[in-house]
C-alpha cells in the first residue's frame, strides 16, 4: 500500500528550506525528507518554489468579467464605476452572474489562488447578486474557499432598503458584514453606519470588512471609528478596513495618533494597489497622489496588512488576470518595498498574511494542514514576485487541480544558449 496519495518531491519552501510533502486525503500528513516513500501520484518540484496557495482578501465576484457592459467607464473614476455597475446589477441574470464568476474561479485555480473573500452587492431588493454568489460558493466549495461579504454598495442609509437588504443577505448565509461609510450622505451618517455595522457583527458573531475611506479626502476618518468600535465591542482580530486610501492624504500628526489606535484594536488593513493607483488622484492635476495607504508605516506598528486584488475586468478596472503576484508586484512598487525583506514580505502578504486576515483554517505547509499548495517556476518568493511565473502545479485539498508545462523561450541566436528562463 502507498504511503501517500500524493507526494510533492524536492521543492523549495518560502523560507528557503527543502522538503518533500506527503499528502493523504485532503491533509498534509508528512513534511521533510521522505525518500523511499511510495505514493499514488508524484509531482517533481525539484528546484521550484512550493508555497501555500494564494489568497485574495478583497474581490468583487458579482461584477467580474463584465467590462464594457453596459459601456466603458469613460472618466475612469470610482463614482462612474459605481453608477455603471448600478445599471448592470439590475439587468444581469443570476445565471449570467454565476457563469462569469465560475469562469473567474477557473482562472483563479489555474493561478494557484484558492481562497477569495468577495464583497457581494446587497443594494437591489431582488438580491440576485446574493442568490448567484451563494450558488457559486456551493459549486466551488470542493476546490476553492469563497467567503462572501454583505456589501451595501450604494450606502447603508443612502437607499431606503440598504439596511434591510444587508440584514436579509446575512440571513441568507453571507459570512461577513460589509459597509461603505465614506459613501453615506454625511460624515455623521458614515460614522453611524460604522457603529451600526459593528454592532450587527457583534450580535451575530460575524467578522467585519468595510470599504473604508476609499477617497482622496484627507478628512475621511472612518477608520478611526472602525478602530474605536472594534475595541469597544471586543471584535479584535476579526475586523478589516479595505482600501484606507484617505490615509495617503492625511495630516501626518493625526496619523501618528491613528496608527496606534488601529494596532490596539487589531484591525487589519487591505490596500488594493492595482485599483487604488488607477482610481485615486483623478481629481488632482500635478503632483498627482498615488492613493495607496501607508503600508510600511502600518507594518512597523505591527498592523497586519494584506494585498487585495479588488477587480478584474469590471466597471472599475479593465485589466487583471487573477494573479495575486501581479497585485504584489504593483504593491511593491507603489509602496516602495524594495529592500529584500520587504520584497519577500510582499509574497507573504498575498499568502500567509491574507490567510490570517480572512481567518482561513488549516492554512500552510505543515503536518495536519489542508493539502493545498502551488508549485511555481521560481526559486524563491522574491523571484516569484519578479517573474510572476507559470504555476506548474496546483493542489487543492489533496487533489491536483491544475498543471502547466514549463515553457522556456527558445532562442535562435548564434553562439548563445538555445533557451532562456530568466531565473537567477
Ligand atoms: Zn472593493
From TrEMBL:
Keyword terms of this UniProt record: Hydrolase, Metal-binding
Keyword Hydrolase: yes
Alphabetized GO MF terms: cytosine deaminase activity; isoguanine deaminase activity; metal ion binding
InterPro entries reported in the protein's UniProt record: Amidohydro_3, Metal-dep_hydrolase_composite, Metal_Hydrolase, Metallo-hydrolase_Enzymes
GO BP annotations listed: cytosine catabolic process
Signal peptide feature range: none
Residue intervals of the Amidohydrolase domain: 41-400
SUPFAM superfamilies from the UniProt entry: Composite domain of metallo-dependent hydrolases (SSF51338), Metallo-dependent hydrolases (SSF51556)
Pfam families, sorted: Amidohydro_3 (PF07969)
PANTHER family reported in the protein's UniProt record: CYTOSINE DEAMINASE
Protein name, entry field: Cytosine deaminase
Species annotation: Puniceibacterium sediminis
Lineage, highest ranks first: Bacteria, Pseudomonadati, Pseudomonadota, Alphaproteobacteria, Rhodobacterales
Amino acid at each position: 500500500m502507498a504511503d501517500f496519495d500524493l507526494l510533492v518531491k524536492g521543492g523549495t519552501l518560502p523560507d528557503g528550506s527543502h522538503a518533500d510533502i506527503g499528502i493523504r486525503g485532503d491533509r498534509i500528513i508528512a513534511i521533510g525528507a521522505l525518500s523511499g516513500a511510495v505514493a499514488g501520484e508524484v509531482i517533481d518540484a525539484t528546484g521550484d518554489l512550493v508555497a501555500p496557495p494564494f489568497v485574495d482578501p478583497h474581490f468583487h465576484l458579482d461584477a467580474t468579467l463584465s467590462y464594457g457592459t453596459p459601456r466603458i467607464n469613460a472618466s475612469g473614476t470610482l463614482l462612474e464605476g459605481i453608477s455603471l455597475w448600478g445599471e448592470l446589477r439590475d439587468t444581469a441574470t443570476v445565471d449570467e452572474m454565476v457563469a462569469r464568476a465560475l469562469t473567474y474561479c477557473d482562472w483563479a485555480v489555474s493561478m494557484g489562488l484558492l481562497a477569495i473573500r468577495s464583497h457581494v452587492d446587497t443594494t437591489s431588493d431582488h438580491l440576485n447578486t446574493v442568490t448567484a454568489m451563494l450558488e457559486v460558493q456551493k459549486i466551488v466549495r470542493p476546490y476553492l474557499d469563497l467567503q462572501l461579504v454583505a456589501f451595501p454598495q450604494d450606502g447603508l442609509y443612502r437607499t431606503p432598503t440598504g439596511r434591510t437588504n444587508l440584514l436579509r443577505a446575512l440571513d441568507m448565509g453571507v459570512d461577513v458584514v460589509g459597509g461603505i461609510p465614506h459613501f453615506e450622505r454625511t460624515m455623521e451618517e458614515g460614522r453611524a453606519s460604522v457603529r451600526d455595522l459593528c454592532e450587527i457583527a457583534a450580535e451575530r458573531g460575524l467578522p467585519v470588512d468595510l470599504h473604508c475611506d476609499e477617497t482622496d479626502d484627507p478628512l475621511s476618518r472612518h477608520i478611526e471609528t472602525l478602530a474605536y468600535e472594534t475595541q469597544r465591542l471586543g471584535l479584535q482580530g476579526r475586523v478589516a478596513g479595505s482600501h484606507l486610501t484617505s490615509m495617503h492624504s492625511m495630516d501626518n500628526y493625526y496619523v501618528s495618533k491613528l496608527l496606534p489606535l488601529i494596532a490596539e484594536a487589531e484591525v487589519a488593513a487591505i490596500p488594493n494597489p492595482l485599483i487604488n493607483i488607477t482610481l485615486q488622484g483623478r481629481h488632482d492635476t500635478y503632483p498627482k497622489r498615488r492613493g495607496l495607504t501607508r503600508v510600511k508605516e502600518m507594518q512597523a506598528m505591527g498592523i497586519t496588512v494584506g494585498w487585495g486584488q479588488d477587480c478584474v475586468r469590471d466597471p472599475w478596472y479593465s485589466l487583471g488576470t487573477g494573479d495575486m503576484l501581479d497585485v504584489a508586484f504593483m504593491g511593491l512598487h507603489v509602496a516602495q518595498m524594495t529592500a529584500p525583506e520587504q520584497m519577500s514580505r510582499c509574497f507573504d502578504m498575498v499568502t500567509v498574511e491574507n490567510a490570517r486576515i480572512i481567518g482561513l483554517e488549516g492554512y500552510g505547509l505543515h503536518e495536519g494542514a489542508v493539502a493545498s499548495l502551488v508549485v511555481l517556476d521560481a526559486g524563491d518568493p522574491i523571484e516569484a514576485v519578479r517573474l510572476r511565473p507559470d504555476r506548474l502545479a496546483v493542489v487543492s485539498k489533496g487533489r491536483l487541480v491544475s498543471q502547466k508545462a514549463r515553457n522556456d523561450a527558445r532562442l535562435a541566436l548564434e553562439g548563445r544558449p538555445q533557451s532562456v528562463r530568466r531565473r537567477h
